[in-house]
Amino acid sequence: MWVNFRATPELPPLHPNDLTIERVKTYQLLGVWQQDNLKWSKHIEEITRKASKRLYCLRECRRAKLPDAVGLTNYTTKIRPLLEYASPVWGGLPQ
Fold it and tell me: How far from each other are the two terminal CA atoms of the chain, in whole angstroms?
């Protein structure tokens, strides 16, 4: 990935040891999506996509009229860790 904020012409491909390195706009490293413009839109998009899938279990708990403790446990073990993972990195550190 090439991180550059200036408009530059397309750079030639890199060929170390006769291998071509592919240039990408986004990649995932340790569960955090990185973009070439250093914005977090791809990361937020992926997290919300995963969280909406996991919310299905929470809706089913409600529909089955299970106790609130079951829904809370479901949220704290499946959904909240996904939303909070690496949040100091992409959300900024508190003062």
Answer: 31
Place of tokens 């977090």: 40
Rounded Cα distance between 51 and 55, Å, is 6
Query: pLDDT tier at 95 (50, 70, 90 boundaries)?
Result: low
Q: Phi/psi at 17 (nearest 5 deg)?
A: 55, 40
Report pLDDT digits (tens) over 41-55. Answer: 898 899 999 999 889
Tokens representing residue 7 in the block: 């408009």
User: Which residues share a beta bridge with 32?
Assistant: 29
* Dihedral angle over CA of 34, 36, 37, 40, nearest 10: -20
DSSP codes of every residue in the chain: ----SS--PPPPPB-GGG-PBPP-SEEEETTEEEETT---HHHHHHHHHHHHHHHHHHHHHHHTT--HHHHHHHIIIIIHHHHHTTHHHHH----
